[in-house]
Amino acid sequence: MPAIPLVKTVLLDTELPTDGHKPLRFWCDDGRFYFCKPLGRHRPEALFYELVCAALLEALELRVPPSAFVQIQTGSFEKKHFLKNKTEISIGFQEIAPAETVSQHISYIKNLNGNFRRPHSLLKIALFDLWVNNTNRTQSNYNLLVEETEFGKDWVAINHESCFGGTNGFLDLETPVSPTNKLISSAYFTQYKRQLRKAEACNVIEHFFSFDTKLIENEVNAIFEALPESWQIAADLPKNILDLLLCQERNESIKTLMLQTLS
């Protein structure tokens, strides 16, 4: 992946109300809006997970907002938005517009193969969520955008700090792959899979893990090397992530589960 850029905040536009941590929408010095996740509100490990997942999604040719390290500048926000560790480097993701948030109220997929330029992207995102154990893309909060492009609609995956075990500690490699609290168990995915062409979908599943393992290793290690030293992330965390991602037995279980879900 290209080097992660560093941007500086100019002005806080809004603090978004969500059911979790409230992202901060900052106008930054590169002339773009970023949704920022500052240290103090988010653990360094969670921010590392965010960056790793963004890189993996890009490697899988799935849409994800471009990421950046963000230096939150004193004077770019009001005192009421008190930010701990505000001088530390945090992360942010560029705003995607125009885009619509997938929610419980806006979740109908009309004419999948006609309206979406890459109909299998959501299937790949569901596989990805099993792969990284993302428990934060559920029916209560899909953490998905539908972006409007000149070539048709496309899904954009956001918010991945709950992957790899999240705040509960790193996921044990022996933990069975489970559809619980995952996208594949949601109403949105249920009505999506009804519109899939089964033979094509099965082919996507069979080839999902046909990636260059060296590429995955390089992505994870490069991001770790780029992290600010002040984050003080354990040196063995990249290895733990790679052991999970490259476990062939576990990946075969993911393929089997998804094929069963489509049957």
TrEMBL record:
UniProt lineage: Bacteria, Pseudomonadati, Bacteroidota, Cytophagia, Cytophagales
Q: Which InterPro entries match?
A: HipA_2
Instruction: Please give the Pfam families that the UniProt record associates with this protein.
Output: HipA_2
The HipA-like kinase domain sits at 28-167
| Designated name of the protein | HipA-like kinase domain-containing protein
